[in-house]
Amino acid sequence: MGAGKYIGRIGGLAVALGIGAAVFTGPGVAWAEPSETSSTSSTSSTSDTSDTSDTSDTSDASDASDGNETSGPETSKDGKAPKDAAASERRSNRRDRESQQQKQEATEKAAVTERGDDGPKTTSEPPASAAPMAEPERKAEPEPVAVPAEPTPAPVGAQLPTTTETSTETSTKTSTKTKPEQTVDPITVAVSRLVDAFVDPFAGNAPSGPVDSPVAWTMAAAARREFTDEAPKLDKAVDPVTMSLVAAEVEEAFAPVPVRAIPMTPLLQPLQQIPLFGPAFVTPIVGVIKAIPFIGDVLHPIVGYPLGWTGGSTPRDYKVISEDGTAIYVHFFPAWKFDESGKAPTILNGPGLSLPGETVPTAEDNPFLPNQVIGMAPLLRNGYNVVTWDPRGEWSSGGVLQIDHPDYEGKDMQAIISFIAAQPEARLDAGYLDPRIGMVGASYGGGIQLVTAAIDKRVDAIVPTIAWHNLNDSLYKAGAPKTSWGALLTAALLFTGARVNLQTYTAVFTALFTGQLPQRDQDFLDERSPFALLDQIEAPTLLFQGTVDTLFTLQEAHNNAIALQDNVVLKVVWYCGGHGACISSHNDGELIEDRTMRWLNKYVMGRNVDTGRKFEWVDQHGDEYESDEYLPPAGVPLQVASGQGGKLPMALLFGGSGPNWRAFEAGPINGLLGLLSGAYATNAVEVTATASQTTYLVGAPRLKFTYSGTGVAQHIYAQLVDTKTGLVLGNQVTPIKVTLDGEQHEVDIPLEMVAHTLLANESVKLQIVASAVPYQTFWASGEVNVSNIHLSLPTADAAAVIPSNADAITTAA
């Protein structure tokens, strides 16, 4: 039963790729795993009422407290001053207030217990399990009030767990980003509602969903429940609207508290301890399985770690209980060397979407993104503890995936950080439950870093890789849904059995069939975007972004950098990689590992390390350049203009941009990712710009033109092609909103950012095309007449461009 569910999901995940961020999501409900007792009855007996309270949490707490509960002292390990004295004082005052609140609630509880008319009497009522089937004399008594045995006040601004009653009131969230109103076609609204009804017939217009899931959802949840532990039953139904976090309340809402951590033992791990048999037979088998990239992580809850083969101390696994009761499957890897106190800083290493937490400590490279994320072994070898985890709603963790939402995945990370503070190997700072923390990870594992650093000041440094700024900007640019990526990533979630907010699927189908996203889906994407939280980040930040990333383009990192650069120590690196295929140059991962280790060694380990200049980028040849500024000072733009243009017949796919079959030159996985990239189009209006000398194109080109046309298409597209190689610069395609009403219109827009070097007499060709694979729709017709084209390519001042020489990382203390 247990082994089958993991093995059966491996093939699906390989097809679905398992990276990136979830796309086209909407404001659906967040469902927990179904409870064992009905919560819809309003006439239950006393025993039924107690079943619907938080007694399951209390029971699990008592189980975990048997030597398994972890908490951390409020002491400094190395004499380091508090990171924020004012914040430390606020937290101290806050704990005093909470202590007084606990005493007051205990007094009220005692008073309630004594009043026979307000609650059950502790001296006369039998236990719920011994209650008779029917007690007529009790029907006239008021409903008992369930009072927790040990009341724990929730942090200010946090939402208490929802009750089993359906609330008639809904809270609203004020948007932190003003956006112009967009008119959505009535057909889009109708299709969206129809898909809603098909996917989730139980979901209405209310923000909170039913407590019990439909049969299919119940079966899926049961299939994913890990056979070795019942902790996921702690999940509670929560309302994503009322739980929404307002950026202005982030600082006040943060109050670290000790968390429960339940030790977990993989199925085969005890067998390895059998004398002779275990070391001779079981451990080698486990070692072989763990050596298989990705598959070893998927099967980890069954096979565990090969004892003695992990490079250092044996890692250990836990279910860390998040604020809302969700159990997060966490792996703790002690460092391979410690300082004189026997402690080490800790690095949180987040996985990509649909991937389980990494469990191979001896891996020199990330098993799924080998040249884009640092491996676990270099971190452990350089004196860091490493923590990985299965994100909420995926693999062995409970809950519902909410796309790195601060109130869900963000709260999970706060619980994990508090858990780290209780580990004997963790170096602590002077704050309350404050371990020395750094973060790494790509895509989904990059987005969670921005969220966590914003809501939790205990994070000392972050290295977000190929993360996003605003999901609407990246996935619905100019009102054009990035449908190919939406379909691919939704398939990843489906094939891996992830528990996802159901509006994810309804929004994807709506976008595929109508080419639009309703405003409710756009609002939901905004809530899952870190742009509103960036001004809360204080940790030194190293941003990695891929020049060939077609899911989260360079523009996403640029927007993050602009928002962060005035508040934090910042460095930006553009490299050939990301959600795409690096086929114009070679990426061996050395740049990423070197810069990552330098950043962590300086801002987490506290060493005197040179982290380099503020901005570094790699061009299409693999040549590395640096600048003291982000972006480098501008040079004279490379421009071209044409008054002629041409006619562009609208056609689906044929003759348009992509698919990019050359992407498979980068290997099978990168080939699948790069297939969704731009490629040379045969149906296009073109102009060519030629450089007279060595020119560094760095930034966003600007395109202006005039057009008129008729038809039903809503977008045309623009891309730049290297005339020497025939490759689209950065694989990037930019959608352009058009109105085909027969009238003349003007367009003036920035294109996707690029990093490209032209030698003397080399050129790039602008193509305006009718269709593009990343934004593929099911319908388009008409004709567009394009004229008066003007293209301006941004250049860096050659005097400010410095060739980069990557030095080997120095690991000496």
UniProtKB/TrEMBL annotation:
<keyword id="KW-0378">Hydrolase</keyword>
<feature type="compositionally biased region" description="Low complexity">
    <location>
        <begin position="37"/>
        <end position="65"/>
    </location>
</feature>
<dbReference type="InterPro" id="IPR013736">
    <property type="entry name" value="Xaa-Pro_dipept_C"/>
</dbReference>
<feature type="domain" description="Xaa-Pro dipeptidyl-peptidase C-terminal">
    <location>
        <begin position="597"/>
        <end position="803"/>
    </location>
</feature>
<feature type="region of interest" description="Disordered">
    <location>
        <begin position="30"/>
        <end position="183"/>
    </location>
</feature>
<dbReference type="InterPro" id="IPR050261">
    <property type="entry name" value="FrsA_esterase"/>
</dbReference>
<protein>
    <submittedName>
        <fullName>Peptidase S15</fullName>
    </submittedName>
</protein>
<comment type="similarity">
    <text>Belongs to the AB hydrolase superfamily.</text>
</comment>
<feature type="compositionally biased region" description="Low complexity">
    <location>
        <begin position="143"/>
        <end position="177"/>
    </location>
</feature>
<dbReference type="InterPro" id="IPR000383">
    <property type="entry name" value="Xaa-Pro-like_dom"/>
</dbReference>
<dbReference type="Pfam" id="PF02129">
    <property type="entry name" value="Peptidase_S15"/>
</dbReference>
<feature type="compositionally biased region" description="Basic and acidic residues">
    <location>
        <begin position="75"/>
        <end position="120"/>
    </location>
</feature>
<feature type="compositionally biased region" description="Low complexity">
    <location>
        <begin position="124"/>
        <end position="134"/>
    </location>
</feature>
<dbReference type="InterPro" id="IPR029058">
    <property type="entry name" value="AB_hydrolase_fold"/>
</dbReference>
